[in-house]
Amino acid sequence: MEEEQKTRITIDIYGQTYTIIGTDSSAHVRQVATLVDDRMRELSARNTYLDTTKVAVLTAVNSVHDYLKLQTEKELLEEELKKLKG
User: Fold this and answer.
1) pTM of the prediction?
2) What is the torsion angle, in degrees rounded to the nearest 10, for the CA atoms of residue 24, residue 28, residue 34 and residue 40?
3) Is residue 60 part of a domain?
4) b/e per residue, 48-84, with b = 16+ CB within 10 A?
């Protein structure tokens, strides 16, 4: 079995530098980092009293919330598609 090529990329999120090692493309990792950084900065701007840890946790909570909503929507669309093919 062929092992996937791992890449190492350095990114910046909310003023901190991280090295990410994985099989996703550099472009994908940079896109994810940009989205996380943008969301953290957006939350921080609206809630200036929050420290970095709280901004990070709220970003994670909001991201998982969005993910679960999309997962539910996907499941509903799959059920609808199944009925249409029926």
Assistant:
1) 0.85
2) -50
3) yes
4) eeeeeeebbebbeeeeeeeeeeeeeeeeeeeeeeeee
Q: How many domains does the chain have?
A: 1
Establish if 46 belongs to a structural domain: yes
Closest C-alpha among 38, 71, 72, 69 to residue 55: 38
1 lies in some domain:
no
Show the domain range for 18: 7-85
What is the rounded distance in angstroms from the CA atom of residue 68 to the CA atom of residue 62?
10
pLDDT tens readout for residues 44-76: 999 999 999 999 999 999 999 999 999 999 999
